[in-house]
TrEMBL record, chain A:
It comes from Zunongwangia mangrovi. Residues 5-191 form the Glutamine amidotransferase domain. IGPS catalyzes the conversion of PRFAR and glutamine to IGP, AICAR and glutamate. The HisH subunit catalyzes the hydrolysis of glutamine to glutamate and ammonia as part of the synthesis of IGP and AICAR. The resulting ammonia molecule is channeled to the active site of HisF. The active site is at C77, H175, E177. This is Imidazole glycerol phosphate synthase subunit HisH. The keyword Endoplasmic reticulum does not apply. Its main location: cytoplasm. It catalyses: L-glutamine + H2O = L-glutamate + NH4(+); 5-[(5-phospho-1-deoxy-D-ribulos-1-ylimino)methylamino]-1-(5-phospho-beta-D-ribosyl)imidazole-4-carboxamide + L-glutamine = D-erythro-1-(imidazol-4-yl)glycerol 3-phosphate + 5-amino-1-(5-phospho-beta-D-ribosyl)imidazole-4-carboxamide + L-glutamate + H(+). Pathway: Amino-acid biosynthesis; L-histidine biosynthesis; L-histidine from 5-phospho-alpha-D-ribose 1-diphosphate: step 5/9. SUPFAM superfamilies: Class I glutamine amidotransferase-like.
From TrEMBL, chain B:
Keywords: Amino-acid biosynthesis, Cytoplasm, Histidine biosynthesis, Lyase. It comes from Zunongwangia mangrovi. The gene is hisF. This is Imidazole glycerol phosphate synthase subunit HisF. It holds the Pfam family His_biosynth. The keyword Ubl conjugation does not apply. GO terms for biological process: L-histidine biosynthetic process. The active site is at D11, D130. PANTHER family: IMIDAZOLE GLYCEROL PHOSPHATE SYNTHASE HISHF, IMIDAZOLE GLYCEROL PHOSPHATE SYNTHASE SUBUNIT HISF/H IGP SYNTHASE SUBUNIT HISF/H. Pathway: Amino-acid biosynthesis; L-histidine biosynthesis; L-histidine from 5-phospho-alpha-D-ribose 1-diphosphate: step 5/9. It comes from the Bacteria. GO terms for cellular component: cytoplasm. Its EC number is 4.3.2.10.
Length: 197, 251
């Protein structure tokens, strides 16, 4: 199986590569459109700030490539947020794959949220073998609002979307590569997804 | 619910853990990777590696260590010690560290916090503050508490937040090594003054100290070294007691 991790200068890609390796697979880091298109699975990572990340995607033309992908795609953290319609951070239009908006946590909670929180109302093949209210590791200041495409939620001042799915596109706000055994299970589930059109 | 984090801290010198670490079931207790994996398995929420090497090759050694830790460990980790530039941070994050912590270099050059936060995002920039209470005032210290500065803890912490730090690791030099508990009064003030997470450090001696720092000190996370390394406190026991006392933890 060919796994591509989209390389556009966003941080902490190494940890994802290692997590994939721990599951017995190899992933390649690439910004090459053809290589990404031909992969069986695509991981779209992201750490950092939305508008500068979007700029990097545009400079390589990947902003056009990603929404056209047909194989399973997993956006992680900022990757997931960029797949939404709009990110409040840096007033950034997203890739509009998901019909959702990304907004900042308000001042009633500490921002960023850093640490382990629970995911619940799990409703996707991504969570096969994962318990309701499982703990995952999250680090973020902006969140995806609840929407029709939400496949699990988390509570932090508000109830928000901690994972989302539309067709072949998946997004998770948490870091599966840093979420101990539960994270590994979710990543494994993604890598084992069969493509259904 | 967001849980309170338990963070073992590993001191690293020339790529090896320092202090005698009492883990009989480890093949090599001096190997930070093996120790880190052990902590991850027993329920640590996060790890901190504090590099205290003073050699020419320290940057390279640390970067290699980070790569080896990231390969084996499936929980987040922070790296600190001697980090003073964007280049230092870049290589550590690229190699798989989740966060870096800066201390003296931020005091000497506060703009570094802004630079790092803008380039890498607030979420991966921890500012470590060592402070000592002198005549009633909390004064920021450098070099492991040896060198006092002019800075007031609470003013500096506020500035650090405004400059873009994602969290603060506060070590009380009055409490560090005493095993008498964390500096909960100062921690509570920090936690209420600021809107970023606060990690309590210095003074852990028993399980009740952790309960107190979460309840009274309002800390978001608690860091300790020797009580974990010498198995005076086992993380599963600690977390069970925290849960029993109504503190949200990941079990």
């Amino acid at each position: 199986m060919k796994i591509a991790i989209i390389d556009y200068g966003a941080g902490n890609i190494q940890s994802i590569k290692f997590a994939v390796k721990r599951l017995g697979f190899e992933a390649v880091l690439t910004d090459d459109a053809e290589e990404i298109k031909s992969a069986d699975k695509v991981i779209f990572p992201g750490v950092g700030e939305a508008s500068s990340a979007m700029k990097m995607l545009k400079s390589t033309g990947l902003d056009k490539v990603i929404p056209q992908l047909k194989q399973p795609v997993l956006g992680i953290c900022l990757g997931m947020q960029l797949m939404c319609e709009y990110c409040e951070e840096g007033d950034t239009p997203g890739l509009s794959i998901f019909d959702a908006k990304v907004v900042k946590f308000d001042n009633t909670v500490k921002v960023p949220q850093i640490g382990w929180n629970q995911i619940y109302d799990l409703r996707s093949d991504l969570f096969e073998g994962v318990n309701e209210k499982e703990y995952v590791y999250l680090v973020h200041s902006f969140y995806v609002k609840e929407c029709e495409e939400t496949i699990c939620s988390t509570q932090y001042g508000v109830e928000y979307t901690s994972a989302i799915k539309k067709n072949n596109f998946y997004g998770v706000q948490f870091h599966p590569e840093k979420s101990s055994k539960a994270g590994e299970k979710i990543l494994e589930n993604f890598l084992k997804l069969e493509l259904r059109s | 619910m967001l849980t309170k984090r338990i963070i073992p801290c590993l001191d690293i010198k020339n790529g090896r853990t320092v202090k005698g670490i009492n883990f009989v079931d480890l093949r090599d207790a001096g190997d930070p990777v093996e120790l880190a994996a052990k902590y991850a398995e027993t329920g640590a929420d996060e790890l901190v590696f504090l590099d205290i090497s003073a050699t020419e090759e320290r940057r390279k050694t640390l970067a290699n260590l980070v790569l080896r830790v990231a390969e084996k460990v499936n929980i987040p980790f922070t790296v600190g010690g001697g980090i003073s530039s964007v280049e230092d941070v870049d290589i550590l994050l690229k190699n798989g560290a989740d966060k870096v912590s800066v201390n003296s270099s931020a005091v000497k050059n506060p703009d570094l916090i802004n630079e790092l936060s803008q380039k890498f995002g607030a979420q991966c920039i921890t500012v470590a503050i060592d402070a000592k209470q002198v005549n009633g005032q909390w004064i920021v210290h450098l070099v492991g508490g040896k060198v006092p500065t002019e800075l007031d803890l609470f003013e500096w912490a506020k500035e650090v937040e405004q400059r873009g730090a994602g969290e603060i690791l506060f070590t009380s030099m009055n409490n560090d090594g005493t095993k008498d508990g964390f500096a909960n009064i100062a921690l509570k003030k920090l936690s209420e003054d600021l809107n970023i997470p606060i990690i309590a450090s210095g003074g852990a001696g028993n399980i009740q100290h952790f309960v107190d720092t979460f309840k009274e000190g309002k800390a978001d996370a608690a860091l300790a070294a020797s009580v974990f390394h010498f198995k005076e406190i086992e993380i599963p026991d600690l977390k069970k007691e925290l849960a029993d006392q109504g503190i949200p933890v990941r079990i």
